[in-house]
Amino acid sequence: MKKKILVTGGCGYIGSHTIIELIQSGRYEVVSVDSNVRSTPETMDRVEKITGVKVKNYRVDICNGPAFFKIFEEHPDIQGVIHFAAFKAVGESIEEPLMYYRNNLGALANVLEACRHFNIKALIFSSSCAVYGEVQTLPVSEQTPMGQAFCPYAHTKQIGEEMIRNMMVPNPDMNALILRYFNPVGAHMSGLNGELSPDKPNNLVPIIMRVASGKQPSMTVFGDDYDTRDGSCIRDYLHVSDIADAHVKALDYLLEHRNEQQCEVFNLGSGNGVSVLEMLAAAEQVTGRKLHYVIGGRRAGDIPAIYGDSSRANTLLHWHCHYDVHDMMESAWKWEQYLDSKNI
Ligand code: UD1
């Protein structure tokens, strides 16, 4: 008997890849809720093409409590919630902090309320390595203390984690896993699902793909004077389908009662630090195209290097990354070409 899971933000980048992995595990049935303010309903058609399963998405803003709770009334057999739905643009959060606090924390409050009211015992929360702030020691483990958040987006993830911990105290039946992602990139290996970036993406891989496909003549490497092996910043990139797979394993862990504490934290990273210039070289190799770039100044708020220690997830969730940087670039490139072929 499959267990029914509610995924918030199911039409989004990590949400949709997670739905694919949940379905393909054969153990889970999925219902999605996504307002589509930052995603499109067509994502579910792509999920269907890959999995053969049509997932129902409720087009509801989960900040609207009554509309959100109705979904639980319609599906009293929901056993777990994976909560992705949130705004995540660092720059925008600095411009519009209240929009971030309202949306990300208001939504989480309703998710927690629903879990309590409808007796949902398993919650998985999307957090970020951004909660660590500027770190002094690498790799970052779950014991690394949280530093000063460098933007309101990161602050909403810090507060969100605290909200969940605080809700555990008066609700001893509730269980939660907080997953702190490093840099998820790439697309489904079929090339049929990936990230729908805004017109002007801010993240490295979508920008690389725009340059490779000729939509943008060149790009800037933000700084080559860091104290790193080639002077450019180092990050812990991991394939989006690996992140998605971690959610399936996290659900198994909670629903099989393998957690020792009511609320546990896991880093999700590959453990490898890769520099911006190394990412560019990998993209040139995969696409067979010369990428034009200039070396520019440092981007405000960037830290020189961060990568994670995910051994806790390796050991307890039995989760390991299957894809490398080459796969990340190859799938991102396939997805870019798919978008071009559909004029998206
Ligand atoms: C950023 C956010 C992080 C968020 C994540 C979501 C910041 C400071 N951090 O991570 O909180 O969780 O996105 O995916 O924004 N780069 C270039 N040229 C470009 C774009 C990026 O050199 O045109 C470099 C950046 O300086 C950085 C690396 O590429 O060193 C990765 O950048 P990005 O993809 O934006 O991710 P993060 O900054 O690590």
Would you give an account of this structure?
With 344 residues, this protein is α/β, with parallel strands linked by helices. The chain has a domain at 3-185 and 238-269: Rossmann fold, CATH 3.40.50.720. The chain has helices spanning 13-25, 43-51, 65-74, 90-95, 97-117, 152-168, 204-212, 240-255, 276-287, 311-316, 325-341; strands at residues 3-8, 28-33, 56-58, 78-83, 122-128, 175-181, 183-185, 219-222, 234-235, 237-239, 263-268, 274-275, 293-296. The longest helix has 21 residues, at 97-117. The two termini are 38 Å apart. It binds uridine-diphosphate-N-acetylglucosamine. Uridine-diphosphate-N-acetylglucosamine is lined by residues 88, 90, 128, 130, 154, 183, 202-204, 207, 219-222, 233, 235, 276, 299, 301-302.
Helix/strand layout:
Elements: E1 3-8, H1 13-25, E2 28-33, H2 43-51, E3 56-58, H3 65-74, E4 78-83, H4 90-95, H5 97-117, E5 122-128, H6 152-168, E6 175-181, E7 183-185, H7 204-212, E8 219-222, E9 234-235, E10 237-239, H8 240-255, E11 263-268, E12 274-275, H9 276-287, E13 293-296, H10 311-316, H11 325-341
Parallel strand pairs: 1-2, 1-4, 2-3, 4-5, 5-6, 6-11, 7-10, 8-13
Antiparallel strand pairs: 9-12
Helix pairs in contact: 1-2, 1-8, 5-6, 7-9, 7-11, 9-11
The protein binds uridine-diphosphate-N-acetylglucosamine.
